[in-house]
Predict the 3D structure of the following.
Amino acid sequence: MSVPTVSAHAPTLPSHPKVSVLFITFNHAATVRQALDSALAQQTSFPFELLVGDDCSTDGTREIVAEYARAHPDRIRALLHPKNLGFFGKFNFLSVYREARAPYGILLEGDDYWTSPLKLQKQVDFLESRPDCSACFHDCYIQDGPELDRKRLYLAETVKRDLGLKDVIADMFPHTTSILFRRGVLGELPPWFNELELTDLSLVSLLAAQGTFGYLADAPMSVYRIAGGSWTSTSLVARTHRELKAFRTIGSHLGPVALEASKIQEHRRTFYLALGHEALGELSSAKEAFRQYLRGYLRYRTIPPVHVARLALKLHAPALFRLVRRLRGRPG
């Protein structure tokens, strides 16, 4: 599906940027300045461009983006869409991706931000020294309130220095704020990429299919902000359905390694689906999702047994579950 024409400012960007920052935003008025400032604060030995796609925001984000573009014509090009492109921001991403000119790309959304002014320089230096890598990444902080808690990290404590396709899809999806990638390895994006709502899963999987993901073990250099502070049960169910669709599509297009890795993620997501439906009181749907999970349990075992047992009790022996909680001094 093609992306509608967008309106854009006419800046004086560098003629040969090393990095294209693919910045997408929609109704991020409260946070977009911090995100833009964190990109503009980058200290590099090379030029970079900041391509900002605003998806027809209605809360003042559009005006803030235009203000920054006027103030920094040598860094920022603003793509101000005359109408919302929809599809969970995928078409907004495609609009900035297709305008990129640099050999390296990185995604930044208007509610996230970078914490190190040396982030781009460190990541470019890493990829310049590792031609076998299609991308590199680092850990990031998770923020779900007004203040940043630097103890909340996105990745597990132990991370392999080099991740292959199965590692990335099945076990260790880095957050997009942390990933710098070689744009040239992607070529023309396949049609199935444009049909998936979730840009992060499809982009990261495509990149992992083209080379190694190298890990920078420095301190975290970005922040993933959880919108609204948390996931609701309804949004968890909706997101999980989109993820299941994405992993099935990824597995069917990227070869046998991706297929097996995607099945692991599908198995994990069926458990999340059961959790979400149970929290919403949709017990029939929760039990069906849980049955699907159990059918693959002996092969994949993607969830710790204690959590599986807990959900089994909640769904099939709720009186016993409540009794156990009371004996442990917990409500309900």
Observations:
- The chain has two domains: 7-229, 233-327.
- The chain has 13 helices and twelve strands.
- Residues 255-279 form the longest helix (25 residues).
